[in-house]
Write a structure and sequence with these properties.
The chain has one domain. Helices cover about 25% and strands about 35% of the residues. The protein contains 7 helices and 17 strands. GO terms for molecular function: endonuclease activity.
Length: about 280
């Protein structure tokens, strides 16, 4: 049976694991919580699809998949210009700024947990069109897992390249002016497949350069490599630009600013033992 799911509940389909137990618990290894992707008509059932095979290429469709080993945060440490040995490092999720919210803040704090410096980090993976539910049901049958509903819909899925790319560029454009106003860095973390599309369709290469600390906007793209029947993320390319570069890519204009002390208070209120960066 042809199977399009290559990672299911964070496990590679080539791994020898207890699939019955994994599917029963529906846990995500990267968040240590139940997978939040559920079917609208069956909210108690997590879909669990992390990576799909599409046109013979593995495409990450879940942003949490990018949290593997917390490598994406380690790869942003050099952007913490105010960080010094002895400071604590924290990962703060979902902080609102003009234009939306930022997925994560990597924060350096002193011993009193007062913020010394921070970096904003946005995650973006490919959105799908159609539904991956039939592929999930096919996989369960392939794994000899009993189905509640034996019927398998004859529906397919696709990749929403254009909408995903345009949406994230617009969101980044709305937020980067805030970070520039504060003299801080914002990092967009994506898979190399999405970067290839941005370079081809949005000509982003003409508005970016090899990463430099002088730029406020950074793009980190990752490859999904395979080692000993397991998939592993590898940093593939680092680019950087500024608000003008993103605006030129989209041909848009906007202005969004927030005062530093206001943002620091939003972040500091979330800092706790549970947010510390642990490896």
């Amino acid at each position: 049976m042809d199977n399009k799911i290559t990672e299911f509940f964070t496990y590679n389909l080539l791994e020898e694991v207890n699939w019955f137990e994994i599917i029963n618990h529906q846990m995500c290894q990267y968040t240590s919580k139940k997978c939040i992707k559920t079917r609208k008509s069956q909210a108690n059932i997590s879909i669990g699809t992390c990576t799909l095979s599409y046109q013979n290429r593995n495409i990450i469709i879940c942003p949490f998949r990018l949290l593997e080993r917390k490598q994406i945060f380690i790869d942003c440490l050099h952007l913490l210009k105010g960080h010094v040995p002895g400071n604590e490092l924290h990962i703060i999720p979902e902080v609102s700024v003009p234009g939306g919210s930022v997925d994560y803040f990597l924060v350096s704090c002193n011993q009193d947990r007062k913020i010394i410096d921070f970096v904003g980090i946005e995650l973006q993976t490919l959105d799908t069109t159609g539904t991956v539910w039939p592929e999930r049901q096919k996989l369960l049958k392939l794994l000899n897992i009993e189905l509640q509903d034996e019927s398998i819909e004859n529906k397919s899925f696709g990749m929403n390249w254009k909408m995903t790319a345009k949406t994230i560029l617009i969101q980044i454009h709305h937020k980067i002016e805030t970070f520039e106003h504060l003299n801080k860095n914002l990092v967009l973390v994506i898979q190399d497949r999405l970067l290839e599309y941005l370079e081809k369709e949005f000509n982003i290469s003409n508005n970016t350069n090899d990463a430099t600390l002088n730029d406020s906007m950074h793009i980190h793209s990752y490859k999904l490599g395979e080692i000993q029947n397991k998939y592993k993320l590898f940093l593939d390319k680092r680019l950087s630009t500024d608000s003008i570069g993103i605006a030129n890519t989209l041909g848009l204009k906007s202005e969004a600013k927030i005062e530093l002390q206001h943002l620091l208070k939003k972040i500091e209120i979330k800092i706790s033992d549970n947010t510390m960066l642990s490896l």
